[in-house]
Amino acid sequence: MYHRKKRCVIYPKDIQLITGRSARHAQDVVAKIKRLLQKRSDQYVTVHEFSDFSGIPLELVMQFIDD
């Protein structure tokens, strides 16, 4: 039986679906999180980091990105 693993990375498209905001806004959110956490542009933002930043409970975020 094949078990699909959950992602630990969040993408702008996920943020767009969660918040209902535009793609541009979602890209800005990712950029802001990276700046605040002093990440390089080639590094990823995790669902935990997005949850902490947005104040949206992790369990709720995971419901949106579970494939």
UniProtKB/TrEMBL annotation:
Protein name: Uncharacterized protein
Top-level division of the source organism's lineage: Bacteria
